Model the fold of this input.
Amino acid sequence: MQFTSERRLDDSVIERAFNLGEIPGFLWTPASASASSPVPLILLGHPPLGLGRMYPRLVARALYSAADGFATATLELPGSGDRPRWPAVEQARAELRRAMEAGQPVSDEIVDALVLPLVDKAAPEWQAALDAVLSLPEIGGPVGYSGGVISIGIRLAVIEPRIAAAGLFAGSFVPRAVFEEARRVTVPLHVLLQWDDEGNDRQAALDLFDAFGSKEKSLHANMGGHTGVPQFAGEVAAQFFTRHLK
Amino acid sequence: MQFTSERRLDDSVIERAFNLGEIPGFLWTPASASASSPVPLILLGHPPLGLGRMYPRLVARALYSAADGFATATLELPGSGDRPRWPAVEQARAELRRAMEAGQPVSDEIVDALVLPLVDKAAPEWQAALDAVLSLPEIGGPVGYSGGVISIGIRLAVIEPRIAAAGLFAGSFVPRAVFEEARRVTVPLHVLLQWDDEGNDRQAALDLFDAFGSKEKSLHANMGGHTGVPQFAGEVAAQFFTRHLK
Done:
């Protein structure tokens, strides 16, 4: 992990941009974190729209989490932002768009072609980022995963034992294979669902919540459309991480 | 409203038992409440099992709410506790039990016969209690309604303009007429659903949540069976009332 820049935000948070091999990412740390008092980490997931476009929302989440005493880190997704285009996934995305614009149901094949390669490639990258970030003396365990592509969150929760709690956002298409993986998730889960999310199948989200194997899982449904998660829902999610990571 | 007893709990809460005409009830007030600094009120709903049996859970909610600066009040339900038996409702309850024990679906007729008379009789009683409690100088508005028979909460939220927010527990049978009333609820709602509630039809609860007319409504689903609402869910509900009543 090569740090490429460092600056202070709000006087109390250190933002460091890094490259993990060819993959850009960010690490935000409360300025008070040190080797003698390391802070727990939350991985900030995001949709595959590029870190540049997602930056304002990510930094807001990072500042909020830092105030609660968490470091946060995020990584560019494969095929997004400054990373090389990924023609197969872009083709699947075009097919998805065509189907949705035509008002047709989105087939399992399109969802598989769109999401599975992303999950297969991203999950080990985020694990590598975890290795790198946790090697820093001011960052300790346990680790939370928050938001973004829910299928990546599910995969990580299943394969990565350092993840102790996950806050997931029911807002994207989940391949059948990942739905089956959800049954093997056992960490505490906090699932946000935007009840009238125009881009999300509510019943599929409820079925997925039901499938999770976790003994502690909560579903929080709110109004406000896909991007309209109310502020109080963010506060409740923060309390979830504080409960499980501190 | 005749007060029949008064005592201090935990040194910081005043518990007063009262009779409203023939109907017994309780009022809990933070000791700090006064005419010059009145506190908002939460009505504590409960299932029709009698105030005596419900007392331990009610007083726990009252103490919790008092710590957040709320007065709380509750009233015996018609046909419960020390109030006169109500043969028609008891017969409907027996039919409900028979149907459930036989594994048969509970008919709309049984639900109507069981719940509608209770709602029709209880709602104006709770409004009368509200009149009496709000006439005390140390109690101010606005008013919240919390828990208990969800159909009573729905009716009160529709007909009682002093209720500014409601926390409802998706855990009982809702008559079709009350389901239609739910569309006319407009106050902010916080709905708790126990996901694996053995005594509750999950799909009916989701349909009801969908029907509520409120622009701000949140559904919080947790694990743990009918009586296993996790403690953190109570904390989140408390924050809902603090947000809307303070």
